[in-house]
Amino acid sequence: MTTSPGPDPSPDGHYAIFLRGVNVGGINIKMTDLKRALTQLPLYSVATLLASGNIICQTAMGPAELKSAVETCLRDTFGYDAWVVVLTVSRIAALIAACPYPADSAKDHCYITLGSDSEILTELYGLAEQLPSVEQCRLGPEATAWLAPVGGTLESPFSKLSAKSRYKSSTTTRNLRTLVKVRDALARL
């Protein structure tokens, strides 16, 4: 596996951490328990957003060290095979700005699949290109935007493809509205 170099260290130490598979598929973690576990690490201003494993924090750690520390903490505390994607506020803002789709329309919702391994995300993007009726756009080495019909996200071809176990350790998906909320919350830290 080739991991992308990841984001440059955040100049102000502000990061978003996106957990894979929390509060879906049997991995249930209360956000208060998650926050308490993460305060054991050298993180400050830790906050969770929504109940889907979105964390914002401040730390002196770089992104790769933060990713490793959080994954280890989650594995040790909650006993599951934890995988996370770490991004800076500037990178989240750039991904949102690069997205050609609206957050929502009358017929579609926009989702962003985030990845910590650019080669795996490239593979996923290429396979999705071969599927019928998949509209997607590569936003950068760590993100792909795609559309799903309202009420049909889990049945959409891209969702089914990205749910395969091959992509579990390096990708996680959020809707565009969630990324906007995370960006805005990080800006207020």
3D structure, described in words:
With 189 residues, the protein is an alpha+beta fold. The protein folds into two domains: 14-91, SP0830-like domains (Alpha-Beta Plaits); 94-176, Alpha-Beta Plaits (2-Layer Sandwich), CATH 3.30.70. It has helices at residues 31-38, 63-78, 89-98, 118-129, 157-162, 176-187, and strands spanning 14-19, 43-49, 54-59, 84-88, 108-115, 136-140, 143-149, 171-175. The longest helix has 16 residues, at 63-78. The protein is globular and about 45 Å long.
What topology does this entry show?
Elements: E1 14-19, H1 31-38, E2 43-49, E3 54-59, H2 63-78, E4 84-88, H3 89-98, E5 108-115, H4 118-129, E6 136-140, E7 143-149, H5 157-162, E8 171-175, H6 176-187
Antiparallel strand pairs: 1-3, 1-4, 2-3, 5-7, 5-8, 6-7
Helix pairs in contact: 3-6
Question: In a few lines, what is going on in this structure?
Answer:
It comes from Arthrobacter terrae. 34% of the residues lie in helices and 26% in strands.
